[in-house]
């Protein structure tokens, strides 16, 4: 008799980045919860066998359903919003702040379900002085868990995007083992895109030169997926055109996969690629983008291109100065094909294509986040204001779901370490009961970096 599959419950799941990574590492996703009906629709589409509870976890009936769905799970994961940690003063505790009620719900749920392990991810700012230790103490639940915080960058784990996350891993104290520490390639410490002069950018090596040169060779090698550039992530989709309305296209219409990463993302795709519509773009934006090199931004624009309106066509809010305002500057940024992307936000104009004067499709956003192509982003078909829905329409919702997610390859790197510890405990339990096991179940063979 083999050891059963290890089981996960995902709170504040969003579209399911953590769940996708844990599934890739060999876990069974048995349940999840979120308040956003659009994210709920995406999660349900991609994890049809999981029980999804859509609603506010602070409501007693929703919380009760979550606890019921989580009975017997081995691992609890989630990323509860923590709004007030930056306002902590003196001896106040963040768990007592009303604005952190969702964080409090996560801690409470750990105490009620008592999983073998949990993973809580959050923004890196939580690591500031005084707060990190508070969170660690809260999660330890008076010694019931041993907790280890890790500050990780997704680009160090094979994700073509720099995205720092603070990850708390807790193991139940009766397991008798310390939580794991994670160490990726450290590419983000050794390589960086630098502006040498106006209109000219280059990748610079830093710190240990020998190590940096080795990492640079890995980055430049399309068949090496330990360090991945934006170009290696999305170059096969460069034929997409601005204003494309169709949400899917046959896989045969895309270019052949041009990197190991693209082959990995296409694995298990079934003939079509989804989420390939592209936002429309006005002529002024096209003109400006043509004046910005790959990797560049508004600082590379000539003075003529900083005029609020170039063609004379009026669009968007005007400015008193007649020039671009500060609010526009973050929009005019082009990816560089030779290095990973910066941290994407929830808006379509947070990154423009490195070689085409257009925004990215949701699928290209998803590639930069390391979601496989078979993962489809959707929305609740009901129109109008729904409880938990954020205004902005269906297209914006899909970008927001991707931008808010934990990159699955980062989640998988975490999950593989947790999987080994939890699996070992389950096997020992089976042996104590006299039940033969079939040996440890190995995690996914995806190579995402060096983990210690």
Q: Could you characterize what this model shows?
A:
With 452 residues, the chain is α/β, with parallel strands linked by helices. It folds into three domains: 7-184 and 407-432, 3-Layer(aba) Sandwich (Rossmann fold), CATH 3.40.50; 186-225, no CATH class; 228-388, DNA Methylase, subunit A, domain 2 (DNA Methylase, Chain A, domain 2). It has helices at residues 17-24, 37-46, 60-69, 101-113, 131-140, 187-190, 209-220, 230-234, 260-266, 283-290, 326-329, 362-369, 393-403, 408-432, and strands at 7-11, 28-34, 51-54, 75-78, 117-122, 145-153, 164-172, 191-197, 200-205, 248-250, 272-274. The chain has a seven-stranded mixed sheet, with helices on both faces. The protein has a two-stranded antiparallel sheet with strand order 8-9. Strand 1, helix 1 (17-24) and strand 2 (28-34) form a beta-alpha-beta unit. Helix 1 (17-24) crosses helix 14 and helix 12 runs parallel beside helix 13 (393-403). The protein is globular and about 75 Å long.
Give a topology summary:
Elements: E1 7-11, H1 17-24, E2 28-34, H2 37-46, E3 51-54, H3 60-69, E4 75-78, H4 101-113, E5 117-122, H5 131-140, E6 145-153, E7 164-172, H6 187-190, E8 191-197, E9 200-205, H7 209-220, H8 230-234, E10 248-250, H9 260-266, E11 272-274, H10 283-290, H11 326-329, H12 362-369, H13 393-403, H14 408-432
Parallel strand pairs: 1-2, 1-4, 2-3, 4-5
Antiparallel strand pairs: 5-7, 6-7, 8-9, 10-11
């Amino acid at each position: 008799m083999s050891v059963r599959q290890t089981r996960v419950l995902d709170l504040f799941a969003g579209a399911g980045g953590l769940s996708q990574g844990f599934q890739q590492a060999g876990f069974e996703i048995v349940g999840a919860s979120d308040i956003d009906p659009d994210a709920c629709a995406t999660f349900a589409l991609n994890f049809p066998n999981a029980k999804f509870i859509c609603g506010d976890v602070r409501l007693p009936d929703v919380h009760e359903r979550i606890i019921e769905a989580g009975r017997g799970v081995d691992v609890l994961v989630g990323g509860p919003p923590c709004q007030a940690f930056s306002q902590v003063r003196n001896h106040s505790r963040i768990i007592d702040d009303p604005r952190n009620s969702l964080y409090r719900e996560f801690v409470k749920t750990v105490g009620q379900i008592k999983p073998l392990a949990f993973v809580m991810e959050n923004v890196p700012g939580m690591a500031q002085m005084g707060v990190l230790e508070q969170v660690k103490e809260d999660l330890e639940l008076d010694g019931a868990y041993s907790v280890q915080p890790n500050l990780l960058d997704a680009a160090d784990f094979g994700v073509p995007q720099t995205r720092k996350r603070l990850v708390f891993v807790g193991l139940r104290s009766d397991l008798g083992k310390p939580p794991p520490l994670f160490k990726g390639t450290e590419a983000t410490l050794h390589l960086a895109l630098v502006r040498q002069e106006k209109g000219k950018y280059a990748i610079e090596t830093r710190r240990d030169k020998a190590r940096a040169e080795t990492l640079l060779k890995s980055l430049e090698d399309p068949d090496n997926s330990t360090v991945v550039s934006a170009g290696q992530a999305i170059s096969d989709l460069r034929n997409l055109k601005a204003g494309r309305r169709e949400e899917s296209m046959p896989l045969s219409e895309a270019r052949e996969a041009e990197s190991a990463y693209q082959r990995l993302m296409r694995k298990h795709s079934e003939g079509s690629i989804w989420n390939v519509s592209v936002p429309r773009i006005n002529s002024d934006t096209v003109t400006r983008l043509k004046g910005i090199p790959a990797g560049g931004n508004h600082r590379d624009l000539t003075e003529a291109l900083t005029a609020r309106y170039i063609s004379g066509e009026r669009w968007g809010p005007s400015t008193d100065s007649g020039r671009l305002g500060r609010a526009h500057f973050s929009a005019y940024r082009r990816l560089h094909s030779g290095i990973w992307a910066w941290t994407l936000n929830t808006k379509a104009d947070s990154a423009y294509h490195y070689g085409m004067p257009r925004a990215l499709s949701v699928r290209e956003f998803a590639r930069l986040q390391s979601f496989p192509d078979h993962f489809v982003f959707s929305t609740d078909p009901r129109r109008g204001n729904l409880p938990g829905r954020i205004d902005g329409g269906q297209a914006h919702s899909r970008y927001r779901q991707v931008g808010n997610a934990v990159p699955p390859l980062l989640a998988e790197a975490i999950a593989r370490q947790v999987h080994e510890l939890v699996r070992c405990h389950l096997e020992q339990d089976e042996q104590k009961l006299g039940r033969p096991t079939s040996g440890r179940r190995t995690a996914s063979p995806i190579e995402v970096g060096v983990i210690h």
